[in-house]
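ok trying this again, last paste got cut off
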Amino acid sequence: MLIGFSGISGLYAENYPIKPVRLIVAQAAGSSTDLIARLIAAQLTRELTHPVIVDIRPGAGGLLGTELVAKSPADGYTLQLATIATHGVIPALYKKLPFDVINDFSGVTLAAVTPNALIVHPSLPVKSVSALIDFAKKHPNEINFGSSGTGGAQHMAAELFVSLSGQRAMTHIAYKGTTPALTGLVSGEVQWMLPSLSSAMGSVTARKVRLLAISSVKRDATMPEVPVIAETIKGFEVESWWGVVAPKSIPNAVTDLLNSSIGKALMLPDTVSKLASDGLRVKLMNPEKFDEFIKKEVTKWSQLVRDNKIVQQ
């Protein structure tokens, strides 16, 4: 009896996995991506009954680890915890890459999201988004905003704010990472930033910076008193995100198995609680919707790059 492709895929999934699975992190150890990956790996190991090993492969802003995954066998044993940077911003920013995030990857599932936080130096006499915009209008070329680096997700979020607010006479200061950028904000070198909420919360809680708003579509249930930027700037929406991807052409049955297993792992109360403590919210998608989500992200950031002539330095 002949067995069709779907039958072969199903048989492969029945025996998958038979060896450890690598979950590539293209960012540095200790990053939010690393922490999320380790939570997923620990729970996924129990689901699959085989080790899921976090493999840290930083370099070139995420290019090195992402290329490694793109060129790995499509057998389900090499996965990546993709981010807004690796599968959204980088493809929009670089004209030539050794991989194509649309054609070289298959989405498995979105995993977690966090809004960005519009934070300002406490000395800045503004306590709302509209007040910041008005202050910038009255003080052209006197306001600096910081980011973790030119062309990074933080920079892109801030450029979107600048573009949609109509206040372009502000200067971008690029730092080498989020921690130096936050230090620059606390010291007054820059007046505002739009980092992820998870990375900003420590400084906010310590009252070293002032939180004006977050960048999600609606207010967060855990902090309902904090407005969203879209209440002032219509259409503004940015969320830092993390999701699992695999090399293109991974067997569908394996993708479905991973999607289900990762979903179960992420929805465990302990995992949800640990992510929430860092300002992260579990958000799942089926593989097809996650593929579409990545396409929309690339389109969104590509448009911003073109409109604002942003160049990687």
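PB: full thing came through this time. The chain is about 40% helix and 20% strand.
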